[in-house]
Amino acid sequence: MTTRAGFVALIGEPNAGKSTLTNQMVGAKVSIVTHKVQTTRARIRGVALEGDSQIVFVDTPGLFRPRRRLDRAMVAAAWGGAADADIIVLMVEAHRGITQGVETILERLEEISTGRKIALAINKIDRVKSEALLALTKDLNERFSFAETFMISAEKGHGCDTLRKWLAEELPEGPWLYPEDQIADLPMRMIAAEMTREKLTLRLHQELPYQLTVETESWEERKDGSARVDQIIYVMRDGHKGIVLGNRGETIKAVSKAAREELSEFLGRKVHLFLQVKVRPNWLDEKERYSEMGLDFSDGNA
């Protein structure tokens, strides 16, 4: 039996559906998914099996024009994930077409295309008519020589099986990189922090989700099989702390409940989750915060 294994980097603009596709391919939720852009910060690896192939999906942060240190570190992580991959899949939203951001990505792809296959996945195909899809496919393939083009709906799963089978066949021969039952290459502490951050992002509005971060401070395994998890939510201002706590603590209670339930389901056992909110005005410039997020602090330099 010949086994195959390798890394597939999903790249594209924020909200292109990279996290949704990662979760769809893995068959479990390993990546944060919200309606807000720029929610994926680190490179998140989700592991999927297809026949004798093990496909390691690298869900990268969206590629956009960075303004802050965190933005620059995220964009560097995205291109780093692409440069390290065996196959790159560019995801483009069908209804948005070739934006300025997509054009910038296409230019950069030329630089890293040597020695690896690059496929195109046009996502959210249910939002446009077939004529528009065909025109977009033709236009994109004239601008870049893609190895293959796929029409998909990451959310509904349309076309995802075809994409997964193609990827499985194109990966290099070699032993599997992870145990058969492993679905993510992330420390459990980070997965837990991401779950809480997702719940906060869904509850809060405007800029605030980008001004906060969540870290798992301690993880204690208990004799009864449950786990106690203590997390800190760092915010930049006192006013932000009040928003996260909510009226009479309602927001933090709702976030804690939703995150605890999801984490318990993910682990298949009871979890006791305790959240604390701390004001840290300069967390965006602290090296330790980046390490916790799985980002390289030095990548944030201009």
TrEMBL record:
Its main location: cytoplasm. Keywords: Cell membrane, Cytoplasm, GTP-binding, Membrane, Nucleotide-binding, Ribosome biogenesis, RNA-binding, rRNA-binding. Residues 123-126 are annotated as: G4. The gene is era. This is GTPase Era. It comes from Shimia aestuarii. Residues 4-173 form the Era-type G domain. It is a peripheral membrane protein. GO terms for molecular function: GTP binding; GTPase activity; ribosomal small subunit binding; small ribosomal subunit rRNA binding. CDD domains: Era, KH-II_Era. Residues 152-154 are annotated as: G5. GO terms for biological process: ribosomal small subunit assembly. Belongs to the TRAFAC class TrmE-Era-EngA-EngB-Septin-like GTPase superfamily. Era GTPase family. Residues 204-281 form the KH type-2 domain.
